[in-house]
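2.7 Reproducibility. Because tokenized structures are sensitive to small changes in the input, we list the exact sequence used for HPr serine kinase-like protein, including any N-terminal residues retained from the expression construct. No trimming or masking was applied before prediction.
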Amino acid sequence: MSVGGAAPAPVAIYASAVAVGEAGILIRGASGAGKSSLALALLEAAHQMGRFGALIGDDVVHLFANHGRLIARGHPAVHGKIERRGQGIVEIGAESAAVVRLVVDLLPPDQAARYPDPVNPYVTLCDVELPLLRLRAGGGATDSALAAVAWLRQFGTI
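Resulting structure tokens (single pass, no recycling of outputs):
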């Protein structure tokens, strides 16, 4: 809560977000970078691990801090909808919000490092510091999903 009791307004960003187990994963990247494909691959990975998995939002995600945690909410107009390449917009199981535990940035190949950045593996959003995983856009959704799950395990959130 801010001074005067009013909660800060949510920040809308172009991103996708999913919940895997109890961990929210925020996926950022340029249009066509593979955010939706990675979100779907993460949900499939959750299913294969016997974990809970749900879409939080695709295309537009609202972020806000609450008691030191970053909360992601999908846009209500597209709740439960995600673009699947070659099929168009499909409806899948969704939750209204998740506590973000990992941010994944999908970067152009010339900006993405081969290995995770050991010096600066964090990003601050809405005054909340979170682990950051930088991956190559278009690098294969399954490989990217496995990398994200490995990071969640490293930080003890899955």
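The chain is about 20% helix and 40% strand.
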